[in-house]
Amino acid sequence: PRNFRQMSAKSVEAEIEELHRLACATGKTSYKDPATGYTVFTEEFHKKRGKCCGNACRHCPFDYVNVPE
Fold first, then answer.
1. Least crowded by CB within 10 Å, which of 51, 57, 59, 64?
2. H helices within the chain, ranges in order?
3. What is the mean pLDDT of residues 22-36?
4. How far apart are CA 12 and CA 40, in angstroms?
5. Whole-angstrom Cα distance, residue 40 to residue 62?
6. Is residue 4's pLDDT more than 70?
7. How far is residue 16's CA from residue 42's CA, in Å, rounded to a whole number?
8. Cβ atoms within 10 A of the Cβ of 63, count?
């Protein structure tokens, strides 16, 4: 396992982008965040839902319109 605490922010971001790309390419609706182990929904999952849920999801395709300020 990688030690994400020792990686630069850019490296972690690149890892997350790659995990998201692979999940979308293989038709998965989520992937595990490598640093936290939390489940992260893909952009495709959110598009299928059809609206912003208001939880400030990482891959929200709806510009976070329902997220409280």
1. 51
2. 9-25, 43-49
3. 94
4. 15
5. 16
6. no
7. 11
8. 8
